[in-house]
């Protein structure tokens, strides 16, 4: 959205989510996350160097950028899985610096995790129960009081079953998580995150490894989170997803926020799309010349294409099960 001017000056871009002008690091009307001066270095490499960024509440925000831009590292920092060298950030107005990841999750900021090998050896239901918050059985004294944890276990199981039905995974309840297809794993990761009733759901590449047949269902589930009042922040290379479901897009490159805007504006910025995310989205920014990088940064700030040549296409992914299908019962039967 932009205001037209009659005096010949450049139009000022505005947006209902933004307080003031649309620009990298712009203030939001109602931010749920605010980060300031967050720097993370690995040896001589500065992976994240975010001067200021705000995530709008109640919206779906995509965090995009080329491989190695610092997106995952920034996710890890926000959620307490990594510590920055410098910087401050808050969630719901409260500082999260020095708050460990499990406490961050308890406050309502939850991120999805790729299904690891060890979680693959648990059943779908067991994975769901791991996502529940404040499990009384984990506390030594409460664990001694059987009725207390039995009641909680029952309510967690009921909640897990209802989420599994919502994500159409109820028939897989007793299967080993490792036997799920790529798309089903993504659904399980999302369903597991919802076990703790989050306010903000952070999804790391929800489309990776998902068969096109499951794409629409996944998109609908993400939109459903917003319809249920949650805020969504996701990292994604799949431009179809970014274009179709995000309300806001933040572009990272070399650790910095280089552009922000609604998807239609960011997607029109051909330089950003081509250079960062087009057909060659696996190309590292390091393969561009310094002059090209400077042009991209300038264009991202001014939102004018600079005419770098590349074609933007959508990515296709696979959804094949990583391991042969087997249920917990099957395995037990073999023992
Ligand atoms: N633990 C680590 N030790 C050393 N370097 C790291 C570490 N984690 C990340 N990096 C480096 O920091 C930079 C940012 O990585 P990061 O994974 O955050 O990028 P990304 O934008 O998420 O990339 P991708 O889209 O490929 O997942 C990269 O150069 C990466 O090699």
From TrEMBL:
Residues 1-21, 302-335 are annotated as: Disordered. Gene3D superfamilies: P-loop containing nucleotide triphosphate hydrolases. Residues 33-279 form the ABC transporter domain. InterPro entries: AAA+_ATPase (IPR003593), ABC_AA/LPS_Transport (IPR051120), ABC_transporter-like_ATP-bd (IPR003439), ABC_transporter-like_CS (IPR017871), BCA_ABC_TP_C (IPR032823), P-loop_NTPase (IPR027417). GO terms for molecular function: ATP binding; ATP hydrolysis activity. Residues 1-14, 309-327 have a biased composition (Low complexity). Pfam families: ABC_tran, BCA_ABC_TP_C. Keywords: ATP-binding, Nucleotide-binding, Transport. This is ABC transporter domain-containing protein. It comes from Agrococcus baldri.
């Amino acid at each position: 959205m932009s205001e037209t001017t009659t005096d010949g000056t450049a139009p000022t871009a505005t947006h209902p989510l933004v307080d003031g002008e649309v620009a990298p690091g712009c203030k939001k009307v109602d931010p749920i996350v605010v980060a300031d001066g967050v720097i993370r270095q690995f040896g001589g490499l500065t992976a994240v160097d975010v001067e200021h960024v705000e995530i709008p509440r109640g919206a779906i925000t995509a965090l995009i950028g080329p491989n190695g831009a610092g997106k995952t590292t920034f996710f890890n920092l926000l959620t307490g899985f990594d510590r920055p060298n410098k910087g401050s950030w808050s969630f719901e107005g409260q500082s999260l610096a020095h708050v460990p990841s499990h406490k961050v999750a308890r406050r309502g900021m939850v991120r999805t995790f790729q299904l690891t090998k060890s979680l693959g050896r648990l059943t779908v239901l067991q994975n769901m129960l791991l996502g529940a918050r404040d499990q009384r059985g984990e506390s030594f004294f409460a664990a001694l009081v059987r009725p207390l944890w039995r009641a909680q276990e029952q309510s967690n199981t009921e909640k897990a079953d209802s989420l599994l039905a919502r994500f159409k995974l109820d028939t897989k309840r007793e299967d080993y998580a490792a036997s799920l297809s790529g798309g089903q794993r993504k659904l399980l990761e999302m369903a597991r995150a919802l076990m703790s009733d989050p306010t903000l759901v952070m999804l790391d590449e929800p489309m990776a490894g998902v068969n096109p047949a499951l794409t629409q269902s996944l998109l609908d589930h993400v939109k459903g989170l917003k319809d249920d009042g949650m805020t969504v922040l996701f990292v994604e290379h799949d431009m179809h997803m970014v274009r179709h479901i995000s309300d806001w897009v933040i572009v990272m490159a070399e650790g910095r926020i280089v552009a922000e805007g609604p998807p239609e504006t960011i997607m029109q910025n051909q330089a950003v799309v081509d250079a960062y995310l087009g057909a060659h989205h696996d190309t590292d920014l390091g393969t561009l010349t310094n002059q090209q990088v400077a042009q991209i940064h300038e264009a991202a700030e001014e939102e004018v294409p600079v005419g770098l040549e590349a074609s933007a296409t959508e990515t296709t992914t696979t959804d094949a099960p990583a391991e042969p299908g087997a249920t917990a019962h099957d395995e037990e039967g073999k023992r």
